[in-house]
Amino acid sequence: MRFTYCPDCGKKLIAKEIGDEGKIPYCEGCKKPLFDMFSSCVIVLVTDGDGRVVLLNQNYISTQYCNLVSGYIKPKETAEETAYREVQEEIGLRLSSLDFVGTYWFDKKDQLMIGFIGKTEDKELTLSGEVDGAQWVDANQAINMVHPKGSVSYALIEHYLNKKN
Which of 92, 108, 113, 138 is nearest to 44 (CA)? Predict the structure, then answer.
């Protein structure tokens, strides 16, 4: 989101040079820059450590491809806390470990996605209302069931498979 008006005083912003950042929307009334904002999310590839991963069916996202657990970071929450919470909420599993993989820009929704691989000892899936279905799948098959190469889901499964082999 790019600001046009100051959210504090309502004054129309001007473009002002701010250090190395270039021209940034600036409020002359409040004397502060207002940098562009975007949502930060996590995306988690959940594995059992034996080569199987959890894929979700979420029809509001896609009826063609499976998804991984994902969700928005709440204020005062770390990315890691969000990952643990989202896995518990969406599929009812407790992670025994969580490894950071990387960050990914999701252009379609202007989001920064923080990618993790989480391991669980739990096997029984308990689905939230936003998940239409979920299943354990061999990771070698899963890579062909998510959005194609170039997607964050594909990148996480590819990373997992490369580390496993």
Answer: 113
CA nearest neighbour of 160 among 41, 54, 42: 54
Q: Which residue type is seen at 145?
A: M
Per-domain boundaries in the chain: 1-37, 39-164
The answer to whether the CB of 69 falls within 8 A of the CB of 104 is no
The pair phi, psi for residue 10, each rounded to 5°, is: 85, 0
pTM: 0.90
Confidence of residue 164 (pLDDT cuts 50, 70, 90): confident
| Fold of the domain built from segment(s) 39-164 | Nucleoside Triphosphate Pyrophosphohydrolase (3.90.79)
pLDDT in tens, 93-117: 999 999 999 999 998 889 999 999 9
Are 82 and 67 in contact by the 8 Å Cβ rule? The answer is: no
